[in-house]
Every structure is written in C-alpha cells, then in structure tokens.
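Q: I'm writing a short methods note and want an example of a predicted protein-small molecule complex. Could you take the sequence and the SMILES for adenosine-5'-triphosphate and return the bound structure as tokens? Please keep the output block clean; save any remarks for afterwards.
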Amino acid sequence: MDCVVELAGVTAGYNNKVAIEDINLCIKERSFTGIIGPNGSGKTTLLRVITGSLHPFTGTVKVFGHPPIRVRNRIGYVPQFFNDDPYIPFSAIEVVLFGLYPNIGMVKRPGHKDIERARQALDTVGLLDKEGEPFGHLSGGQKRRVMIARALAGDPDILLLDEPSSGLDVKSIRIILDLLHRLNTERNITIILVTHNINQITSYLDYVVYMRKRIYVAGNPKEVLSKEVLSELYGAPVDVFERNGNICVLVEDSHA
Ligand SMILES: Nc1ncnc2c1ncn2[C@@H]1O[C@H](COP(=O)(O)OP(=O)(O)OP(=O)(O)O)[C@@H](O)[C@H]1O
Ligand SMILES: [Mg+2]
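A: Understood, no commentary inside the block.
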C-alpha cells in the first residue's frame, strides 16, 4: 500500500471555525514523520482528524484505505494533554489497560491476556518495574512512557504522538526518541510525531510537515528545515547546521 494515511482536501475545525484547511497528505508505510508548526497552527487538530475523533467539514481521510473509525484498533494515539494529577487513583498498569478498553469493552474486566499485553507494553518502554506504582507518583518522563505503553498495548500499526517530549529534560527526551526509533525500525510501526524538539530527532525522520493552518511546506528534513523556513517558525533568525547526522537549529535570542 502506498499511503497508509491519506488526506485529500481536508478542512476541519470547531464550531464552524476552520482550524486546518485544504490538507493533502500521504504518509508512507513504515515512515517516521515529524509535524512542526507554531502554537495554534492545527497540529493537534490534524492528529485528531487522522484518529477519527474529529470529523472534517470537507474532504476525505483514509487510514489503511478505510475511514479511521473502522481501523481504530490499528491506531495508537498519545495525546498532548492527559490527567497527571498526583492523586489519580490508578496504577501504571491500570492506565495502560485503559488503552485496551476499545478492545475489551468498558463493562468487561481485563483478562489474563490483556494483563499480559499491558505488561509487555510496559516492558517495551522500560517500566515494567513500575507496574504497581500509582501513576501520579511517576516522573514526567515516566508518565509519558506509560502513555506510550498505553498506546502500544493494542499492538497498533501506526502510532501518533502529540508532543510526547514537552517539558522533559534532555535525557528523558533521548529515551523517548530512541524508543520511537526502535518501534519504527524493529517493529515497522509507522510513526507520526508532533514535536518542537527537532534538534534531537532529524536523523530519524523521513518526512517533515510544517503546519500553519495549511501545510506550509512538506518534504524530507533537509528540504524543510532550511534557515528561511525555521526563521519563520521561530519568529527569530536561526542558524542551521549539521552534526552527527542531525540538523541542528540555533535560535538567536533577539532580547539578548
Ligand atoms: N476543542 C476546541 N474547540 C474550539 N477551538 C479549538 C479546539 N481545539 C483547538 N481549537 C482551535 O483550533 C486551532 C488549532 O488548534 P490546535 O490545538 O490544533 O493547534 P496546535 O498546533 O496543536 O497548537 P499547540 O502547539 O499549542 O499545541 C486554534 O486556533 C485553536 O484555538
Ligand atoms: Mg497541539
């Protein structure tokens, strides 16, 4: 199959207000795509349209050749925001099990097999030793990894992640990006990642989409991550250079 995600002429938004407009997009099987763009440019809206949780005003969305809702068990989604209240009354493994509820059904209790799948997903993200810990007691980076495990528990073929590294330190970001790279190359999961941390990720990316309500530019990282485009994105002059296969971006602080 050529495009595992295919959007044609998609316009979507909220209460008749357009948030993304005329989106045409083809995501290739087993590729690793980065979505970048300023705040409010429609990145989360785009992911919601792909997962089927938001219906477009116009245009068509296909995932594995079908409307997203029909293949939702093949789609893993790590949302930008989630409840991380320290008093949240669930353990790490229970949070992962919620990811299986579309499969288990809300009224049924998880069986042996479900618990085993949840444990395997926690093992994949390196947190099996935390399975019984209250979710709210984990660090920010660990919570993000539990959320990735939750999306992985259903054994998806495509994984969409909305800024999974925001607010994390450099080491935690590295752990998450390396995990995504492994899922992409070893398990052949197609990955779509919304991120602001492009410096650490460009060597893994096949494709970059720069959103600004419309697709402003899309292509391979070298094409898209040019000085001109990134100065536009950050609203400040930038320097772009290459190091260890990564494209690095240095933003000049205009207030310095
Ligand atoms: N639930 C909602 N109801 C109404 N308007 C919304 C809703 N969610 C987003 N919007 C609007 O849609 C537009 C795009 O928002 P979206 O969340 O997709 O942007 P984003 O690129 O993900 O931003 P950020 O980088 O801040 O996460 C914005 O103008 C936003 O105000
Ligand atoms: Mg967002």
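A: Remarks, as requested: The chain has eight helices and eleven strands. The chain has two domains: 1-64+157-226, 84-154.
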